[in-house]
Design a protein that fits this description.
This protein is of the alpha+beta class. Helices cover about 45% and strands about 10% of the residues. It has a five-stranded mixed β-sheet, covered by helices on one side.
Amino acid sequence: MSHKDTHQKTSSYQKFYTKLRGFIRKYPRTSLISGAFLSVLSLLLLFIQTVSWGLWTEMPDKNELINFPLPQASEIYTVDGVLIGRYFLEDRISVPYDSLPSHLIDALLATEDIRFYEHKGVDGKSLLRVLFKTLLFQNESSGGGSTLSQQVAKNFYPREDFSLLSLPVNKVKESIIASELEEIYSKEDIISLYLNTVSFGGNEFGVEIASRNFFNKHVKEINQQEAALLVGMLKAPTYYNPIQHPARAKGRRNLVLSQMHKYGMLGLDELDSLKALDLELEYGRYTHHEGIAPYLRENLRLELVQWCKENPASNGRHYNLYKDGLKIYTSIHSGLQRYAEASINNQMKKLQGKFDRHWKGYNKAKASKGLYEDKLKRSKRYKSLQTAGFSEKEIDSVFQVKVPMQIFTHKGIRDTSLSPRDSILHDIYMLQGAFMAMEPKNGFIRAWVGGFNHKFYQFDHVKSRRQTGSAFKPLVYAAALEEGVSPCEYIPNDKVAYRTYNNWSPRNSDNIYGGEYSMRGALTHSVNIAAVNLILKIGPQKVVDLTRRMGLTYDLPALPSIALGSADVSLRDMLHMYAILFNQGKVVNPRYLLRMEDRNGKIIYQDPGQFSNKQVISPETSVFINRMLQDVVDEGTARSIRTRYKIKAEVAGKTGTTQKQSDGWFIGSVPGLLAGAWVGADDPRIHFRSLAAGQGAATALPIWAYFMRETFKDKDYAHLKDGKFPKPSQKMLAEMDCKDYWFPLNLEEFKAWYRAEFGEDEEEFIQNQP
């Protein structure tokens, strides 16, 4: 601060000192008293000057006060304009003066600073009132000694510790800043600054957030009693919290209403009727776990924090995601996101009930002993007991004692009493689910569901790498087509033990072998042996290379078992690669950040809107795979989409089930929208005990089907049900014109297989074979 600024700040005190000194000289009682009084005043003025000079604490200059930006939460919006979340350290949304109702301002002035429009930042009369009424006579209704301007100063610059001089130093600092604020801002601006900076407890700031949290409405919509309640909380937000202490809050509210009556802002009849009202709250405190798309918002948060570090503003200052009030616009569609979350929740509720019945009567602890021990030893409770010197036996005893806790159930959050041992088992046997939807032509993600309750289960299964089962097979078939294998080239279905791979002997899920399959037949019926023979024909490395060209950032093992989905791949990465299959073989990258604006509306990031023309696979291969995947839906492992869920739109997709039914998958597309679902426990050692119950067609496919049926009802996406996939040319149709399979020499074995597969007489089929 310059000497000139300091002189201006202290001139008013010097004038006061000069006048007072003249008064004492004119009416001296004794020279001793006068001298002592002047000495005290001199020391007081010197003290004030030392504070203004910044000798005790750093003082802001005028430019800082003019340009001081309030910390403000950044907001996240969907592509259709719905606010879905905020990032903040201080939860605050600033509102202009025009959005503040007059009765809120009346309540504030009547309670905090009735002489607000009469002073210039420091109110001498209020200070005397506080001294005599509040401090000496404990009269709470007399109000505080600080003006609104001083309280704004305190909100901007929190008080510091100066030992015994803390109160006088901070009070002088606030008085100096308050005087500056009165010169810079209008009275209305100061009221707005105050109501946007006051704390309502925790990390919640400003009346807009408080109105949303306590009444589920904007501040401009609150009524008189609600305004009085909010103003009343300002004295002690925790002590007068209406949720925790409703009686106290009501009493404080009524005191504010009485103050309003005292100063003519309420009539007596109105006062009595308002004081008689009960508190009417609609509490909806925002947390990062709530609202739609919490898993996507957390993934986006991590990326934006890094972006802010790497992209400074034009003035060189780095953006702060939690304070700068950024507006973040995503490609998520609020309707599709809600349908996806509802589909996950509905299916997981049904599946969990089925899973619990599936394991009823079994010793879960014994069945998951190794996993249980792992979870137990990784828990904070176990580690703290171990550090404290407890033996394994003592720790086991502690873990069997019931304690109060909250647990998640699909019927709601439940307060219960469980032992830590049982709570671990509860979580181990909780099935999880994930879902993502994107447009394959541009990569825009429209829905992202990493789980069904972010508060209890924060691990994002959209990004979790799991074995993919048969959902990986289309990539093997695409690689084979790219290597020149004809769609009608028959692939053996003989069970073999491969010496090169330690006598590995894959098997089919139906345990039926023999004969040969065309590509279409093998993929339609998800024949494992055919897939393995196909990958061995072209070499596993060819498939790995294709996944890398498609954008997979990690290498898969170049082993034939990847044809059966033995490699771990995330749902997001699977959709990334499938999108290329449905985008005529061109690269498309998943994305969801459209643009960002600063608090003034200036665009600081814009999605480039450029799409790669890089051809990863030929358009012909894309059409071949698309047609085969339509057959999977029409005739193969995903035919329940037609028979059970009655979806008539063109659909292409693939189910996937991993070993021991640990993972269930379905990835499917209608023209214009690709979506995938995964289901499984957190640990693959926990699974359904039968293929019928745990296969992807039974676990993951229903999520996709529920989602798509709701999507077809949405006005923005209803056109999808009439969409058409690219049709093969006549030449391509000719290349695919062959039987799905030919029967083996063992005719009886084939008949048994055919009857099991189709439930029909096989004689007509046999007669038509070449």
